[in-house]
Amino acid sequence: MMASDEKLLKQKALPEWQMQELREAFDLFDTDGSGMIETKELQVALRALGFDSKKDKVRKMIADIDLDGSGTIDFNEFVEMMTGKMGDRDSPEELSRVFKLFDDDETGKITFHNLKRVARELGENMTDDELREMINRADVDGDGEDREEFVRIMTYK
């Protein structure tokens, strides 16, 4: 964990594992490794997840999150955005929709292969070990991350 992440962890009173999850999510969006999420990167990620990715809407999203006016989202701004939403989690309908985006083979589970496909669609070059670790964190019973496990991870406060 980076020193700035540790400082943010203390400020936000987040468990270390949750800060690590946020870092991994940020890194998925930051496909060029610049340490910033730019308009193009957010557009690609939103499109891969099935959301509206029109350039003007993406720019507005960034402007709403961009606290320092840089035109990009840095990790601190990303954490602010995500922790602001943690108390106001997505509806069960929205979580079901997101789960179905991962579970494209309709097995009722998010498997390693599902996660690998989404990472590839996002342009993320994660190792198989990194992807397996993400699944293992959520998959309590070892049979793939089911909807209940997905909702538990997504609604953790």
Automatic annotation (TrEMBL):
Q: Which Pfam families match?
A: EF-hand_7
Q: By what name is this protein known?
A: EF-hand domain-containing protein
Q: Does the keyword Repeat apply?
A: yes
Which ranges carry the EF-hand domain? 17-52, 53-88, 90-125, 126-157
MF terms from GO for this chain are:
calcium ion binding
> What are its GO cellular component terms?
myosin II complex
Q: Does the keyword Repeat apply?
A: yes
Species, as recorded: Emiliania huxleyi (strain CCMP1516)
Q: Which UniProt keywords apply?
A: Calcium, Repeat
Cross-referenced InterPro entries: CALM/Myosin/TropC-like (IPR050230), EF-hand-dom_pair (IPR011992), EF_Hand_1_Ca_BS (IPR018247), EF_hand_dom (IPR002048)
